[in-house]
Amino acid sequence: MDNKKVIIIGAGPAGLSAGYELVKAGYKVDIYEASPYVGGMARSFDLWGQRVDCGPHRFFSKQPQINKFFQELIKDDYTLVNRLTRIYYKNRFFDYPLKIANVLSNLSIIEISGILFYYIKQRLFPIKDPKTFKEWVTNRFGKKLFDIFFKNYSEKLWGIPCSKIDADWAAQRIKSLSLYEAIKNALVGDKNQKHKTLVDQFAYPHYGSGTIYERAADYIRNNGGAIHLETKVKQVHQENEGFNCMFEDGQSKQADLVISTMPLTSLVRNLNNVPESVTRALSKLYFRNTTLIYLNIDALDLFPDNWIYVHSDDVKFGRVTNFRNWCPTMNGNSKTSILCLEYWSFDQDDFWKMDDTELIKLAKAEVRKTSLVDESVEIIDAYVLRVPKCYPVYETGYMEHVNVISDYLKTIKNLIPIGRYGAFKYNNQDHSILMGLLAAEKIKNNESPDELWNINTDTEYQEEGKIKDVLIQ
Length: 473
Fold this sequence. Notes:
Elements: E1 5-9, H1 13-24, E2 28-32, E3 44-47, E4 50-53, H2 64-74, E5 78-82, E6 85-89, E7 92-95, H3 100-106, H4 109-124, H5 133-141, H6 143-158, H7 167-173, H8 179-188, E8 201-205, H9 211-222, E9 226-228, E10 233-239, E11 242-247, E12 252-255, E13 257-260, H10 264-269, H11 276-283, E14 287-297, E15 307-310, E16 319-322, H12 328-331, E17 337-345, H13 350-353, H14 356-369, E18 379-392, H15 398-409, E19 415-417, H16 419-422, H17 429-444, H18 467-470
Helix pairs in contact: 1-9, 1-17, 4-5, 5-6, 5-7, 11-15
């Protein structure tokens, strides 16, 4: 260990998992978090006598390191949640992942004919080397299915046309989906499947996803580490063989190693002596913000889904979570249902600057417009939560700029960027946990952390894993 001092910037899934492993190994660790809480986007909090997350967060990894981390901290304090997730499109509900029988029963003969026509056409005349999300999905499913199930939601989320979204987004998230396989399974079925997959069921802590991070933070504090909340790191400078971390209040701390989960652009822009080529690459990367609007509904049985993807273009929100359908311990003795509507915007958008009163008015109107909440049902209360810079935007060619930045950072020994923000990767919490655990392992073994940049690029988005393989035995 050589008595090395480690500073971790950010107390989200990546930062806390790294801190947890390093403290276990005896390292001196200080974690600095800009917000008043731990868990980042995966945190949980109390609201109207119930427990909620920042949108839907679940664990579904086949990686043994991640499941060991979950087991050590959660133990038996979890439940198995039966997953139901659907797509809302033009007043109809479609199963997600898509099931061909459900799709056929929901669409007209004309729509079905269009899907088959464009699918066959695309298979006969595929786009060679698709570069964009639109090209990749159209190649796989045909233009009609792309228009129905991919276009609107993706453009809501990213704020740019699908023709400008990089194909990496599709390859990362939907590479295992296939219209051919969906049709085959509908006709033949999977007769050999004896266990539910992670599509069907997932493990979930009794008091929210954030429980795992609260417990990791407690372990760190109780075993020699420190977590400093509401302490924002402004700059990281190289000094001799180590680093000087400077805070907004003007104070600074020295470290031998720094693990950063702050936005990659903010970290690198404030390093000393950044090359002009790297500065140019930074200017090409940007983030998308999320606005979460929670509604307390005077009803128990609004709809059965855990969450719904909203593909209709007549409302602005893109996803709605119903926390009543996750885990009974989340609801306490409350007789109401909490919904969370998700909206996305950029810093410069009028929506991001809209006041809470107008946002709540919009959310109430839109949730009724979809008929998810009937006009006769009372909306008792509302709460707005803004989450800045939470989605790294995969604009076409973004990876070229990330590579310029990552190549530069590889020349700075002992500065390790990880996590969704830190590595500019659209991570699930599982991927961020894995980055944190492996970062700690690299430090303990005195190994290069360069391969961490590949996590989530070549780590499979594995929902087909069997529940028996990943749950605590």
